[in-house]
Specification:
By secondary structure, the protein is of the alpha+beta class. The chain is built from five helices and ten strands, in the order E-E-H-E-E-E-H-H-E-E-H-E-E-E-H. Strand 8 and strand 9 form a beta hairpin.
């Protein structure tokens, strides 16, 4: 085997140019991830894909695989850290899963189940975030935005429109829309855009189709996120 790294001393082959996350996925090894999407350039913001490479904790979605790497991808400590990252994401926004149209199809919620997150653990921020329902076909609910920038990347790299961006700093960072008044209806956004369909949570929702698929029968109601095939 020419190119390989090891996980628990087992050789894992990779193709030069693959990230650790991509190589693990090819080998059938699940690395949790939230801001990563196979269609888009890596972002490295959520840190759920943290693994240990040669003793250092790194993001598997941004580090290239190389020969000689010795990986640890799952330990109680790594999983506790992943659970804490999820808890921080939950308390930083306003995520009321039982009333969310995305429930059952939400990657944040599914990862919460995956890592047995039973409480928020941290004190809830309950930030004041606005909703933009101006567009006839889609709604932005910033309460649920996790700032993964998948819509930003999709709009920029696939739709070639640059409708979305992140504005503000720190706690005030929020999804902004590139239009004269900042409203989605005044932008070049269209429901056919890739950006309209890539949100992993319920921050960008398509109108007119709410609850067509009943809660209880949705994707992550049926399978763990670690078992899904994203390709
Ligand atoms: Fe790697 Fe988010 S999936 S940092």
């Amino acid at each position: 085997m020419e190119n390989y790294f090891t996980i628990d001393e087992q050789p894992i082959p990779f193709t030069p140019g693959q990230t650790i996350l991509e190589a693990c996925k090819s080998a059938g090894i699940y690395i949790p991830h939230l801001c990563h999407h196979p269609e888009f350039t890596p972002h490295g913001s959520c840190k759920l894909c943290a693994v240990i490479v040669n003793g250092r904790t790194v993001s598997a979605c941004t580090i290239m695989a190389s020969t000689g790497q010795e990986l640890v991808v799952e330990t109680p400590e790594l999983n506790a850290m992943r659970r804490a990252m999820l808890q921080m994401l939950f308390v930083e926004g306003n995520h009321f899963c039982p009333g969310c149209e995305k429930s059952g199809n939400c990657r944040l919620q599914a990862l919460g189940y995956e890592f047995e997150m039973t409480t928020p653990h941290f004190i809830e921020f309950y930030p004041v975030r606005d909703v933009d329902a101006s567009h006839p076909d889609a709604i932005i609910d910033r309460n649920r935005c996790i700032k993964c920038e998948l819509c930003v990347r999709a709009s920029r790299d696939v739709d070639h429109k640059e409708v979305f961006g992140l504005g503000g700093r720190g706690f005030d960072t929020r999804l902004i829309v590139n239009s004269p008044g900042g409203k989605l209806v005044d932008s070049t956004f269209a429901i056919t855009d890739r950006a309209a369909h890539v949100c992993p949570v319920g921050a960008i929702l398509i109108k007119h189709v709410g609850f067509v698929e009943p809660i209880g029968a949705r994707k992550y109601d049926r399978e763990l996120i670690s078992a899904e095939d994203e390709s």
